[in-house]
Amino acid sequence: METQFIVSFAFILATFGLYVGIAIFNKAKVASDFYVAGRGVPAIYNGMAIGADWMSAASFIGLAGTVMILGYDGLGYIMGWTGGYLLLTFLLAPQLRKYGRYTVPEFIGDRYDSNVARLIAAVATIIISFTYSIGQMSGSGIVIGRLLEIDYRLGTIIGAVLIAIYASLGGMKGITWTQVAQYVVLITAYLIPVIFMSLQLTNNPLPWVSYGEVLEQMKVLDADLGISDYLTPFTNGTKWQFMALMFTLMAGTAGLPHVIVRFFTVATMKAARWSGAWALLFIGLLYLSAPAYAAFSRFILMTKVANSPINALPEWTKSWVDTGKLLIADTNGDGILQWTELQISNDIVVMATPEIANLGIFVIGLMAAGAMAAALSTAGGLMMAISSSLSHDIYFRSINPQATDQKRLAVGRWSIIIASLVAGVVALNPPGAITQIVAWAFALAASSFFPALLLGVWWKRSNAAGVISGMLVGLTVTLGYIFAAKYGGFTILGIIDTGAGVFGTAAALITNIVVSLATKPPSKKIQEEVQDLRYPEQMTYRDGEVWLDNGEDIPPTK
Fold this sequence. Notes:
By secondary structure, the chain is mostly helical. The protein has helices at 3-25, 31-36, 43-54, 57-70, 75-99, 104-111, 115-148, 152-202, 207-225, 239-253, 257-260, 269-287, 290-305, 315-322, 349-356, 361-399, 405-426, 434-458, 464-488, 501-518, 524-532, and strands spanning 308-309, 326-328, 336-337, 342-344, 539-542, 545-548. Helix 3 packs across helix 12 (269-287), helix 5 (75-99) runs parallel beside helix 10 (239-253) and helix 16 (361-399) packs across helix 17.
């Protein structure tokens, strides 16, 4: 048995044992533990959990590879995701926390006083989270397939089973603390290789500073090979596609149910804001490293693999060729691997980099554990979002309001198990690359939840008819555009399927506003509740005035 296999397997086994142990120790015993971790998570730890929830397999495995393949155009993913996170932290999260519900569909149902709106939101949560989870399952399959040297599809099934066990044990309480541990593992695994590569290539341990030097050298290499400059913008799409993708990711980020619900696990609005601040720091460590990762990996491939004899390629290439994620073809028959004869999937760039840069067996093992942590942490959050919609928003709020906590917990756990296994089966033949699948999920969130939440928090005139029409129109437009662009070649201004959210969001906002204005306004109570969201928790808006809370009945004084 190879030493590399033993080391990598030991890393993954040890970390997975840690996650299961934490989930068992923090097993949910009541409904509030299962849905919102008892609302007692400290801000700094919630920030770490948000970071782990956020940094999915798409971020960990696919982001640097996407930037490497697309060059400048790949930066749209980084700018969109980061911008959307700021939008969520400062525009929506504290207000949603003050409203005090368990789930996003529950907020929509109560804010708009409509069971139909809550059910549509619950179904949309399931569709979005399920689409997103396919990418995570696929990512876990790549990691397990490479580690065990088996087909990645078998690795996907193994990953789905592992996620089902881990996520169903602790509910949100268990998931929160396992995500804290997963953040530590994944960020350590992500930073060590890029720091080592920076030292190898530039003698500078700070990749965020040194990779500009490598970019200058790549300009020369690109010119020698006669290929497009790595930094030239819009070589893989129009500028409209770049902007549409960025907007879709930004608005989608602010509407993702599994991320928003993390802000429900803290005690106050202030803690929600601090959670966002901490999360921004933790997420920034990875996102600022991805462009350096991409540049270093591309430079090493161009200088140490391309133009080498095909029968003398590094040993690591064989393992990745076996997974089907690396394609090598001697198209001109000269026995030399040209740069254009090398096709590397963007989904394996980060995973293969420790081997490409010859960083040693422990770094490779740590990278495998980090990738698994990223896939598991986000998949756990997504399965939790699906489970909450099924067991709380649909089962408890609509079918059996008298259900006991134990009955609700059982429905929630079985929902996680079934959703994990179904997502794993669909991920056996994913309809696109990880980042592409994730972009679809963001487009659906952007066109359904973002307009509903934005107007729900900041426009008291928005009503039930408006939000129902808006969500249905937004989802229809987005799904229609994705299918038309992906399978029919239809585009507007060169905007492809990953930018579909810009059309769906615009349609949903316009529909919500027009229908709301054309129909009866919400009740005075609901309009005052919306107005109240703009004030700190120590203040209450009622009867046209702001009241201070002195710890007794609200509102006691002006």
